[in-house]
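Protein Record: Sequence and Backbone Structure Tokens
======================================================
Tokens: labelled as protein backbone structure tokens, with as many entries as the chain has residues.
Question of interest: how does this chain fold, as expressed in backbone structure tokens?

___
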Amino acid sequence: MVEISQSDFDLLVQQIRELTARVHRLESALGTSQAAAKAPRQETVTRVVEPPPPVPPTRPAPPPPAFVAPSTATEHSDLETRIGSHWLNRIGIAAVLIGVSYFLKYAFDSGWIGPTGRVAIGLIAGIAVMLWSERFRSRGYRVFSYSLKAVGIGVLYLSFWAAFQVYHLIQSGPAFACMLLITASTCALALSQDAEILAVFAISGGFSTPVLVSTGVNHEVALLDLGILTLVAFKPWRRLLWLGFTGTLILYVAWDAEYYTRSELQPTLIFATLFFIIFAMAPLLMLRQEHGAGMMPLALAFVNAATYFAQAYLMITEISNTAMAWFALALAAVYLALNRMRPRNADEAAESNLRLMHLALAVGLITVAIPIRLEAHWITIGWFVEAAVLLWLGDRIKSDLLNVFALTALMLGVARLLLYDNFVNPPLIFNMRMLVYAVAICVLGLVAYHALRRNDDLTKNVGAVAAVALNILALTALSLEIRDYYSQQMTTFRPGSSVIANWTDLRIARDFSYSALWMGYGAMLMAIGFWRKSAFVRWQALILIALTTVKVFAYDTSELERIYRILSFIVLGALLLAISFAYQRNWLKLPSRKPSSSAGDVA
């Protein structure tokens, strides 16, 4: 509701009085007063009572200025209230804690109080401030009460820190236990008072404890993370999860940089796995809460997986890449299991998004495991096999997401095949490069077959692209074999006067072989197109034959010797005449005069 200041309210009251007086004067002028004199006194009372009710809601509404000013004033008032009640309190907390620290230091330096007395004063002051804050909470000053509690909690932490680190009154174990007790008590207080800010104070103090009581050994941070998970299970305080994850990561990185050695691999990996399990279950808890369909569960699932995998990679690859590959596959299996888990009372949309995220992480880990374990061309083959498996699974369970992952793995394989795996292999045809191309062609054929069976246009377009890519890879593989064959022939020359002539003859033979291969492949595609009655395949054949024709006329005419030039033109001409004759015989019964026939033929 819009708030109205006192001046605006007085102005509205004055306007109502003036309007009431004006109505009274108008009624008197029209003779209403005479009719009112003949009527009973009760009717007059009704006349007086009726006008006021409609006047207050209707009359103040028309003038816009009366509402614009209060709205702006309200915005400034809200900002002012937030600054005064929240931010000044937080700054005040920091100021008081700093002041207490300076006072303690001054007392230490001056020797006013002994070590035991100083610690006792700190503990008494912290407890007193927390008890005092309850008085303000009972009177409705919740924010101020929580601010005082934060001061008291901070004083208690500082007191135990001083008892251990400065005065050495207690050992690290009791100090750590006392700080954990403060953290647990604050968490219980946060639950009982339904105060998320107190939980934030408790978690912040809990993660500060290993720093304040630092001895270089592993502390039970996992207990704190389990406590956060318990809090989130009871209260919708999802920000605590990010606070816990960030605190855990900071402590882990700091400990790893300072103390980690290879001998600590097993316990470190165990604790990292425990942290991973805790925060892997956290997104499932978020789904059970109201408004759980946001991006927070997805982001936490992704960041948790990436962080855990990076931690394990840095540790395990120092020992064995094979072990790291198996670790990645095991982690993928974990996410496949998480994909099958369905929390009760979860939002359907949020659950579906999280399951897709788990599936994506599993596929991504499998994809990453391949180059970790395999080498050279086996990486490419692994990605092609993965694409085939994902495509089969996507077809079985009708999952478009798996089909997208299959295409992604396929594109990775094709890119690596064309950029890295075009190495020279001495055996012709039966070599590893040809095996990689054969696997790629088979997978592309599977994609084309799977896509062309579907009815939607997008999937059919994907199948068409796969079919074109299949033919391009086949031509590339055969052309590379021709190149390698003649390259091997050229390297067998011995020094002598006929070397240049022999090299030129081999180069001419190689160029003619390219033309012959392309023409033969185009003829094969044309035959398949006529046999399968596929305009799409025939158009590929026509384009390839057209490119070959351009090569023959533009390149072979000037570069090839007479005998090769004659053969090129004769073979090309015979091929073109044969194709033309096939079209003139109209073996496919193509209706050439109807414009709509082309669309039907392509389909």
Remarks:
- The chain has 23 helices and no strands.
- Residues 65-110 form the longest helix (46 residues).
- Residues 65 and 71 are 10 Å apart (CA to CA).
- The chain has five domains: 6-63, 86-215, 240-373, 375-492, 516-603.
